Give the backbone structure.
Amino acid sequence: MKNDDLDFDKKHIWHPYTSMTHPLPTYPVVSAHGYELILRDGRRLIDGMSSWWAAIHGYNHPIINQVMHAQINRMSHVMFGGIVHPPAVELCRRLVNTMPTGLECVFLADSGSVAVEIAIKMALQYWQARGNPRYEILALRKGYHGDTYGAMAVSDPENSMHNMYQNYLPSNRFLNSPTRRFEENWQKGDETSFSQFFSQHHKKIAAVIMEPIVQGVGGMRFYHPEYLRLTRMLCNQYEILFIADEIATGFGRTGKWLACNYADVTPDILCLGKALTGGMMTLSATLTFRHIAETISNSKAGCFMHGPTFMANPLACAAANASLSLLENDSWYQHVEKISTYLSVGLAPLISHPKVRDIRVLGAIGVVEIVQEVNISQIQHWFVENGVWIRPFKNLIYLTPPYIISKEALMKLINAIAMSLDQPENFISS
Ligand SMILES: *Cc1c(COP(=O)(O)O)cnc(C)c1O
């Protein structure tokens, strides 16, 4: 990559949530290997992000690469209308076998946001098919479910700037974000607001959607599993569908295979994405029960109304199969547990730092909540100068490292965060 390319990038290419007139700096990455990103000048950065929860086996994993090469040589893509292929069957079989019992009808799509759109559409079609249409989804404040319209409409109204798209977004209902933290003791009375809301509004609600345990983009908050159990119970009581968005949390990140496992609940509809392909390709899956799929299919519409061009892309399915097979063989649980311990031990002392408001760790997720917002371009530069790739947002510096990271590399990430706190220019003075 030449300087010319960087100029072109600045001038012509949008980046996530970034201004086109005053873009944040971008760093040219020319390759990546294991837990390292390699810059064009040869510098190697330790990856603390897994490319947003996705690259759980690190980059360029030889086995995943090999499986993908083999699939390219057979076919990278073929339409899914009227056609089925081995990678899709293998993947859906794996998902049906490893996800909670009963979630046996699988819809494969392109990305996490689309998986959420599909889940919402399934819920709406389900109620329509029952001759009792319901038009609202119940979601949590501080939730995040993606950037497309349906997903945005169930994400936190303030974070997702609902007012920017007023009159175009469907209106939904929001419950206050859970306040009881993951590790706290559940108190009598914590359930009151949830229960009251359900009893008042249930007749209009088609489904509840939640990120189980971890509210990611909305603040990296870890809430008490009892909220999930309670939601499951209320959904049963009032016959509301329960959609679990495990796009970030699925495949072991929180220390359980699914975050729902912390509460022993099974959702009616489950959304998976991000780490599904080990971060190699974009792919998502929405799983549901047979009775829901059958209700939808036995309606006047006769089918579920969705079918993306790249549905069940064989190359993406092959990557997912390789990733899932590694997770089967390679005891992910022990890796995540080790990372969890190192994160806990390494980050805990930072709580006494005046810049730090809170430290929390769950599975292979470590969060340092700061008392003020970070100066993103400055702190990013500082991290790169110090050999690590960490991308904070707002007042949150967090780590979601690849499961294969070494203890030494993880310690370097933690040390970099510790040192970054002593550089005043890394933060926006309030
Ligand atoms: C990332 C994410 C999404 C959206 O997935 P995309 O692949 O970015 O569309 C949805 N829900 C949650 C919980 C996520 O973390």
In short: Residues 111-113, 116, 144-146, 211, 216, 245, 247-248, 273-274 surround pyridoxal-5'-phosphate (CB under 6 Å). The chain has a mean pLDDT of 96.
